[in-house]
Design brief:
The chain is mainly alpha-helical and about 170 residues long. It contains 8 helices and 4 strands.
Amino acid sequence: MAAATDRSVNISSSREVVSGFSPIEVRAPFALRCVAVAVDYILVVAVPVLGLVFDLLLGNDKSKLSDNTSWLIAFLVAISNLLIFPCLSGQTLGMMMSRLRIVAKDGTRPSIGRVIARNTLGYLATLLTAGLGFLLGAITPSGRALHDYLTGTMVIYASRKKIDQIN
C-alpha cells in the first residue's frame, strides 16, 4: 500500500471522492473478509446461545423459540449490524474490527439504497448460490463478491482515519 501516499480526498458538498482510486490496490483481502463475516456471525448467534445458557443455569425451561426474548434481541442485533451500521458508516461491526469498508466501485460512499440492496437482495443471491457468490471475491482481481457485482459496490481495506490523514 505504498501508493497510498499519492491519494487524496476531496470533499465537495457532502460527497467524498478518493482521487487516484485503484480498486485492486485497496481491495480487502479475502481472508480478512472471512474474519469480518465470522465476527458478525458470532455476534448474532452469541445472543440466543447466551440467553439459553442463562435460562438453563437459572432453572428456567424457556428453550423454545417463542418463549425466549434472546431471539428478539438477536434479531435486533442482526438488523442493526447488517443494515443500520452499514447504512450509517459503510461497515458492519466485523468490518469495523478488521478495518474494512463498503464503497461504490468508483471509491465513493455508496447510497443507502445501494447498501440495503447489497445486504438484503445481494446476500440472498449469494446464499442461493450456496456461498459460491462469496467465494467469487477470492478469485476476482478486484475482490468483489456476487453481492458486490450486483449492487456496484466493493469492500476495501481502509479506515476513515487513514483517508483523513492523507488529505
